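Design a sequence for this backbone.
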């Protein structure tokens, strides 16, 4: 929305299984809109389903953006699969209070 990184946005990483999801880690994005380091690496990185949950409404409210109650987008959950545990997975989110897009980055 503002054309800048989402510094301070809360992001939660979850492991997703048939019985539900479990939280692995929660971070606040840095000034570049990124986690300070990999959310998973080494033996903790395994093939399977993951979910990143971006706390979008709280971020925009903290930026002074007037949102309706309830916000159109509150949290944005992105589920993705990791087939290669040795691969690199960068999952950016481009977001406004009304829309978002994502892709597998490099």
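Sequence:
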């Amino acid at each position: 929305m503002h054309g800048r990184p989402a510094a301070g946005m809360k992001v939660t990483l979850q492991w997703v299984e048939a019985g539900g999801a479990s939280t692995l880690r929660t971070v606040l994005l840095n000034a570049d809109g990124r986690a300070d380091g990999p959310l998973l690496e080494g033996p903790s990185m395994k093939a399977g389903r993951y979910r990143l949950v971006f706390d979008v409404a709280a971020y925009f409210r903290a930026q002074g953006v007037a949102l309706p109650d309830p916000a159109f987008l509150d949290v944005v959950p992105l589920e993705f699969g990791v087939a290669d545990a040795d691969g690199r997975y960068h999952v950016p989110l481009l977001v406004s209070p009304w829309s978002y897009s994502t892709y597998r980055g490099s």
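Helices lie at 56-62.
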